[in-house]
Amino acid sequence: MNLRLIGIGAGVLIILSLPLAGAIAGPDFTGRDDGKGGGVLSSLGLADPPSGGSAGGSSGRSSGGSSVRSAPARSSAPAAAAPAAQPAPAPPSPPQAPRTDARCGPELSSPQGVEAQTCVLVGEGRTWGRSYYRNTSGRPLDAVLTVMGPAGRTVQIRCAVGAGDEPGLCETPKETSAGAPDAYSAVAEFAVPDEQGALLLRSGSNAPAPGDG
Question: Is the pTM of this model over 0.70?
């Protein structure tokens, strides 16, 4: 009777020890592979991280099991530079005055206090006469300016000369040029405006011809 009980007990012990032995030995993971080179441990997320990687970097999970998202990379490219300001356009140049050529005689003066210089001017295809004067005689005078051109053409004008000593000028109208500039000459005569008409000064564009007073 005791032997039978002892045999039954031994069999029960053997049966009960089999699961315990398997649990102690643990599953055999040697040589198993999940097709990705990491084995079953890798598929369960328990494998050691690959060399060179940070802990939890390859699995994308933290030690607590939560998902870790990497921050978006910031661009280091510099912002586009603002376009350079365009220089302001230069202001337009003022129009140039038409060129005028002048042929003048000498500056003359009379003992009575009259000074004058007479010229022939040419510009833009026209010719005219001009006489610059200053009257220091202390009385008003008359001035007659005459321009003589080729083929007997003559233009004449009379100018009133005040008693003041401020500079002034007497000028004929501009006429279309009919020849070369040296074909023209001008003469200005300054006289007292009375019945006698005493000539005080004659000023020409070519040669001096003062009056005898």
Answer: no
